[in-house]
Amino acid sequence: MKLEKYSENDRALYECLVFNEETMVKNLGRTFTEEEAAFFFRAVLEQNSEGNEFGFYKVFVDEPDKEEYIGMGAITMNDEYEAPEIEYMLLPQFWNKGYGTELVEILLNMVQGFSTIVAITDPDNTYSRKILLKKGFESVKQYRNDDGEHAELFRLKRPILVLRDMVFSDIEDYVRWFTVETEWMKTDSPWENEATTPEAERSSWTEYYESVRELPEDSERWKYEIELDGKHVGWVSSYVDLDYVDNPGHIPAVGIDIPVADAWNKGVGTQALQQFLGYLKKRGCKSAYTQTWSGNHAMLRVAEKLGFTENVRKKDYRMVDGKLYDAITLQIDL
């Protein structure tokens, strides 16, 4: 699925959506008039000119032998709730094919820095209600909109995830994670685990902290700490020396570790890696790898959600607890 903001040349695409009776009745209760379509298309272009993630997007999918326009996705600011509002409309021939769920997930990934997101739909639009509830939204209220049509407000509350540089207090977190709270190591790279001591870890991480604590703001980061609602829970990093894969183009590989068990199974890894990939893209990276093993099911799920595809698989390459597992390299275009 690909999203591109509407431009002046896209009026025909926009109108084929807002004049589609089946789509608009389900979403608005009626189709637009010619005057409304012209007015709102100008508003779309004005919003899209602001140069941030807010705006109205054409949505395309790869159908057999061609890229096909399927509808619209949007992120606007709901002033009443002081939160981003996500919207989407699909042409009828693309309903009930999983595209709505995928599009909502993409839009949510585009507003990572917000703790509250809202969405509004027709209470009778059971498909959209099902998608929103599945993604963690809760129904707040039903009401009549300005046109007198029934509407339902949904709200998603989620923790605020921040990628930041290391601070001094992180040192003791690392000491604890590598000596006491070590459950996370069982899925990271368990073949690398070696006995260590708090003293050794404290010395090593203090030395590392001193090496990075005065990096200039514009210098490239290969590692960020993950902070969830103000709590340090892990880190994301990149490297170019890959195992068992030649990398003459020095394409970065990304990795993520979340030692804090309270942050597991909450989408934190997906959000953090999505943000880090966005950072690498802004730094000019065109693609990225990630490397894992077939026993790390959580990492494989994250990679799939973000759009990584398998690049190289080394059969029976890793031995863990007496059992052989595959080593897997995946790649994504940024």
Instruction: Tally the beta strands.
Output: 14
Strand content bin = 25-35%
- What's the overall geometry? elongated
Average residue pLDDT: 92
The structure class reads: alpha+beta
The whole-angstrom Rg is 23 Å
Low-confidence stretches: none
The run of helices and strands is: EHHHEEEHEHEEEHHEEEHEHEE
Helix share bin: 25-40%
| Tally of helical runs | 9
Topology, element by element:
Blueprint: E1 2-5, H1 11-18, H2 21-27, H3 34-48, E2 55-63, E3 66-78, E4 83-90, H4 99-109, E5 116-121, H5 126-134, E6 138-144, E7 150-157, E8 161-164, H6 170-179, H7 198-212, E9 223-228, E10 231-239, E11 253-257, H8 268-282, E12 287-293, H9 297-306, E13 309-320, E14 323-333
Antiparallel strand pairs: 1-2, 2-3, 3-4, 5-7, 6-7, 8-9, 9-10, 10-11, 12-14, 13-14
Provide structural commentary.
- The model has no long low-confidence stretch (mean pLDDT 92).
- With 334 residues, this protein is α+β, with helices and mostly antiparallel strands.
- A four-stranded antiparallel β-sheet has the order 1-2-3-4, sandwiched between helices. The chain has a four-stranded antiparallel β-sheet with strand order 8-9-10-11, with helices on one face. It has a three-stranded antiparallel β-sheet with strand order 5-7-6, covered by helices on one side.
- The two termini are 13 Å apart.
- The protein is elongated, with a radius of gyration of 23 Å.
- It has helices at 11-18, 21-27, 34-48, 99-109, 126-134, 170-179, 198-212, 268-282, 297-306; strands at residues 2-5, 55-63, 66-78, 83-90, 116-121, 138-144, 150-157, 161-164, 223-228, 231-239, 253-257, 287-293, 309-320, 323-333.
- Helices cover 30% and strands 33% of the residues.
- Helix 6 packs antiparallel against helix 7 and helix 8 (268-282) packs across helix 9 (297-306).
